[in-house]
Amino acid sequence: MQTESREQLLITNLKAIIALVIVVIFIFLVFFRNNFFQSTYLLKSFGELSVDPEIAFNNDKPTFLEFYAEWCEVCKEMAPKVSLLKEEYEKDINFVFLNVDNQKWDKYIRKFDVNGIPQINLFDRKGNLISTFIGKQEELTIRDSIDQLDNKAKYKKEIFNNEFSKIKENQNYVLNPRSHG
Fold first, then answer.
1. Which of 65, 75, 96, 149 is catalytic?
2. What pTM was computed for the model?
3. Among 82, 83, 91, 153, which residue has the least CB neighbours within 10 Å?
């Protein structure tokens, strides 16, 4: 009889512990969901709130152009840093975000030879390409290049980092920039 009551007590305690763990996980997810999903949300909002590239290249302001994809882990990692830069500079600089999975942007993907993402291109007021960043970058590196845009730099700088996402193969179009990389 004692063993039956012990087993019953163990089962009751085990059920209580499992219920407590489930409640703790649920509360954790509720309170910290923004931390888990913030980067994906930022990427989606970048695309939705982006300046049209044609307007950006013709309004006499420097332009920050980022090629990204919502599935790109490096893009997600950099999204909070890019968001800070956008908040700080958006009055003086056009911010354009083009999702490489959107066929609408093929012209720009080809024009700027995008094979890895994220790729950030910085343009001066006249639309001249000044800097290209491919892969994961430090915020300070990008910030320094943005600050140099008004210094009339006459050279093109390319900065590569091995941490980048290759553009996924597009099954519908065999010969385009998304089909290799």
1. 75
2. 0.66
3. 91
Question: Tens digit of pLDDT per residue, the chain (181 long)?
Answer: 567 788 888 888 888 899 888 888 877 766 655 555 566 677 777 878 888 999 999 999 999 999 999 899 899 889 999 999 999 998 999 999 999 999 999 999 999 999 899 999 999 999 999 999 999 999 999 999 999 886 654 455 555 555 556 555 554 444 444 443 3
Domain ranges (residues) in the chain? 46-179
* Euclidean distance between CA atoms 30 and 66, whole angstroms: 31
Measured CA to CA in angstroms, residue 137 lies from 38, 120, 142, 169 at distances of 19, 10, 7, 24
Give how far Cα 141 sits from Cα of 52, 82, 145, 147, Å.
Answer: 25, 12, 7, 10
Rounded CA-CA distance 119/68 in Å is 7
**Superfamily (CATH H level) for 46-179:** Glutaredoxin (3.40.30.10)
Q: Which of 42, 65, 72, 117 is catalytic?
A: 72
Is 75 a known active-site residue? yes
Residue type, 152: K
Specify whether the CB–CB gap between 62 and 94 falls below 8 A: yes
